[in-house]
Amino acid sequence: MARFWVCVAGAGVFLAFLVLHSRFCGSPVLRNFTFAVSWRTEKSLYRLDVDWPKHPEYFTGTTFCVAVDSLNGLVYIGQRGDNIPKILVFTEDGYFLRAWNYTVDTPHGIFAASTLYEQSIWITDVGSDFMILWLHGENGTGPAKFNIPHSVTLDSAGRVWVADRGNKRIQVFDKDTGEWLGAWNNCFTEEGPSSVRFTPDGKYLIVAQLNLSRLSVVAAPPVGSIGECSVISTIQLADQVLPHLLEVDRKTGAVYVAEIGAKQVQKYVPLNSYVPAFGS
């Protein structure tokens, strides 16, 4: 027992020596030690809203996608299954409003594009008549080639970010010309990204990794540079939750995650001291 307390005292003296040496001599040893400790005590940027939704029993299928109409305070969820409503509509507070099962067979993605004059919801099962401005679609591993392109988002600088899931990377393009601007792959060595969205302030990307059941908060690069991927924080979900697609509320910054393994959608609320909401 005496040896134990001698070891404890010795460790305390050693740490005190490091502090004094760093203070007066600029030793890099303590700086490295401090970095290691801060990495292990990473602060979370989000918390789970355990009260959302109020009635989870409406999730009766496999929840594949989610969209947020922040203008009208609505959350749309697409689910797959036989003889069930394919689209569910909730309020941002989690109250169920309505559901429908027509025009939709097997929803994969959903997007809300409402304006002050019109509510508009786009679902990937429904054909579109948009004019194609540019197209990249060849299968492969090189620049501007894809293997399961699974999610796409746009930043305020006019860059298109594509989750190239099978190639374990995010590729970036110019939205007007389609020019390839670069790629991130250093953050996705274990599993490719299945979904990507920007926070309202544009400072971070929220990235889902399906088979790892993980969400990552990644620092957004400055305009004119793609650089390397840098993970700021992670949210580790339970095994086999399988986050498929996610959406970020453009007003509140809340993150909604469609989980095909857990067959539910969960809501994560930002801690405002780290991730300011839109307009703050």
Topology:
Elements: H1 2-25, H2 28-40, E1 46-48, E2 62-69, E3 74-80, E4 87-91, E5 96-100, E6 110-112, E7 121-123, E8 149-154, E9 159-164, E10 169-174, E11 180-184, E12 195-198, E13 204-209, E14 214-219, E15 231-236, E16 243-248, E17 255-259, E18 264-270
Overview of this protein structure:
With 280 residues, the chain is mostly beta strands. The protein folds into two domains: 44-126 and 244-271, no CATH class; 139-236, Beta Barrel (Thrombin, subunit H), CATH 2.40.10. Helices cover 13% and strands 35% of the residues. The protein contains two helices and 18 strands. It has helices at 2-25, 28-40; strands at residues 46-48, 62-69, 74-80, 87-91, 96-100, 110-112, 121-123, 149-154, 159-164, 169-174, 180-184, 195-198, 204-209, 214-219, 231-236, 243-248, 255-259, 264-270. Strands 1-18-17-16 form a four-stranded antiparallel β-sheet, with no helix packed on it. A four-stranded antiparallel β-sheet has the order 2-3-4-5, with no helix packed on it. It has a four-stranded antiparallel β-sheet with strand order 8-9-10-11, with no helix packed on it. Strand 6 and strand 7 (121-123) form a beta hairpin. It is globular, with a radius of gyration of 22 Å.
